[in-house]
Amino acid sequence: LSLALYAGSLCTASGAAFLYHDYCVIGAGPSGLQVAYFLQQAGRDYVVFERSHAPGSFFALYPRHRKLISINKQYTGKSNSEFNLRHDWNSLISHDRRLLFRHYSRDFFPNADAMVHYLEDFASLLKLQVQYNTAIIHVTLERDEQAWNGHYFLLTDQDRQNYKCSSLLVATGTWVPNVVNFPGSEYVEGYETVSINPEDFAGQTVLILGRGNSAFETAENILGVTNFIHMVSRSRVRLSWATHYVGDLRAINNGLLDTYQLKSLDGLLEGDLEDLAIVKDKKGKLHITLRFYLENRNTSAGINSITLPQDELDNFATRAPYDRVIRCLGWKFDFSIYNRSLRLMPGKGNKKKYPQIKPSYESRGTRGLFILGTASHSVDFRKSAGGFIHGFRYTTRAVHRLLENRHHGVPWPSTVYSITQLTNSIIKRVNEASGLYQMFSVLADIILLRENATVFEYLEEYPVGVLAELETQTGRKAPDGLFVIIMEYGRNFSGADKDVFYYNRAVGEAQHAWQSNFLHPVIYYYKHLPTEHEMKLRPPDWPLPRPDAVHHIVEDFLTDWTAPNAHILPLRRFLENCLSTDLRNFFAESCFFFAFTRQKLPPFCQQGYVRMQGLMGSEGLRRHAVEAGLLEDYTPRDFSGDKTPDSREGSQDQLLRDHAIPVRPLQHLVNAKDE
């Protein structure tokens, strides 16, 4: 009845004035501010609604013990800003170099207060359109064929002010605490309210429900003052260094594992929390029992009549009573403000805390509704970094590019190069790109072959899950095939039960690159753009369908894929095999020789030498190339031992001066030697 009356009040208010914007963003956390930046740079009409008085309100409270687990690496030994973002997990993307997180904290694991300060500056210095103290309490649809998506989004705030938008971007994150209800759950304290003063736990026995970073963070804070700490969860502990998933337990919080395995009273248990029950005795102690023991008991009887597990099993693990039980079960998405007309549904299984979305981050139920930030993590849950700043700053940019193409006719940004630059372009990106590096197996660089593979178009950081829709989503065509460049870990290297420190875990030989375990570049070649059907039939755990050819660049201890023989040469030969062409670079003298000895010149000679472009030679340059083994020495030899006459050198220099070829910038020569 309350819902019906509320809906009726909204209908009555439908005649009231609506404030219109093309884009409405709910939430001024990191992802909300990130998309606001992109919208503002593009000159779009948008507004960001934030329920608090400042951006990033989540970080004003969480993590409770104030230490972030996102790394803030000050030094990498390189000045390349794109590369350095690989190891900066807190900065948002912007053109303002002042807004790098390293200017706000020098700590490797920063304090959360620094993040609050950073987000405030990001919003104010960039003059983002954020409307604070505005809590959106209801969202519904209004059908209109003239609207971008066939409907408008109608939003209502706490003051009953109404807003109308053509596209809705939800960036609220997951902030509703996960709560498990069982008999006695009223005695459980929540992570969001429990004391963070260790002295409040002195001499106490504590049970923690949960096994994520918030649970271990809480345990770490009180580890030195408690009698002992037990931790119970339905799943075994997952270490991030084994799973390669940054959301699993990080080393900074795993002190309890030491005290457990070194037998210092603390311990970990596995069990379904819904099967538990908590009983409080007259002294205020909390006893753990099982739900089925309470099903047939006399409810009017006291605790002495309740069967406890230790009554039947005298060495039951949790037979000792606890002083406190703390719930640390993470958070979930708030579905309560969305009308049924939006068909915004929770995911299934372990993704039920997230809304159902497509790989394009658009709602499966409503066109024009996009989920950003942590709440979009269902796309790559337990696989990549899409639930964290260093991941969703890139997926948010991808969503913006999709919107620019869909609503404003702005194609996905791309650069066109000569096919001779194919190897160099790939090597440059896999060594610098931060989006590929952080969103491995999720975002990919796409190389579209054009004009019979004489040129190519390079698109950066496209969501591979919608590869079949590339032409409609980007406004770019793929008539002659394509390459897809992504980063991957080894197929069987990641997992909670994996020993990632085993002997001979690294692969160093190029011929065994396909067995690489650590993160490394993988290049897929398709003669035709994969179809939606092929995407659905891709092998399990493969990010892409089976390609016409695939190449792994062997893993590198320094993540520096520039070794001429181990990295570049195998890549170039793979590309040459796919394209049936020669991608080497040549000096003009070699091109001149090929013109008389081959039916078809290599692309580099066709696009350089034949068009009178290239390096202006000299005897010194030619001699250097000969000594380096890059050119054959065609200098006439005097077998009597005399040197070549000086007159020849003089005439050659004169010839070069008289017939100088226009100079173009020096290109990096990759494996010019005829292998």
From TrEMBL:
Region (Disordered): 635-660
Sorted UniProt keywords: Endoplasmic reticulum, FAD, Flavoprotein, Glycoprotein, Oxidoreductase, Signal
Cofactor: FAD
Entry GO CC: endoplasmic reticulum lumen
Pfam families in UniProt: Pyr_redox_3
A molecular function GO annotation: flavin adenine dinucleotide binding
Example GO biological process: ERAD pathway
Superkingdom of source: Eukaryota
Database matches in InterPro entries: Auxin_biosynth/cation_transpt (IPR050982), FAD/NAD-bd_sf (IPR036188)
Subunit structure as annotated in this protein's UniProt entry: Interacts with SEL1L. May interact with OS9 and DNAJC10. Interacts with TXNDC16.
Membership in a protein family: Belongs to the FOXRED2 family.
The name this protein goes by in its record: FAD-dependent oxidoreductase domain-containing protein 2
Source species: Uria aalge
Taxonomic lineage from the root: Eukaryota, Metazoa, Chordata, Craniata, Vertebrata
